[in-house]
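Could you join me in thinking about how sequence relates to backbone shape in a protein? We need material for that, and I hope you will provide a protein of your own picking. Once you have written the record down, we can walk along the chain together:

…
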Amino acid sequence: MAISSIESVLQQMRSVAQAAGHATTAGSEVAGGGFAGELKKSLDRISDTQQHADSQAEAFELGKAGVALNDVMVDMQKANIGFQMGLQVRNRVVAAYQEIMDMPA
């Protein structure tokens, strides 16, 4: 995949995130963005999704009006998929790091 293709995909991801209303202040702590900034934003989104799913589940358990079981289950699955994706990215990064460290000098 060419660098221009990767840049266009990143730009599309940013535009979708902004259209969805995600706050961009989470990435401001990492100067210059790049891989570290995108990784931090992704981890923040995963965390936000998990917190939202937990609050939805708690609201359903307390019997609050307007919280349906199917919405809770969908939110829980979204949080689970996001977590699994983050876990796989971490595994790939660790594997790449180990492969680089095993290279001869």
About this structure: The chain is about 75% helix and 0% strand. The mean pLDDT is 83.
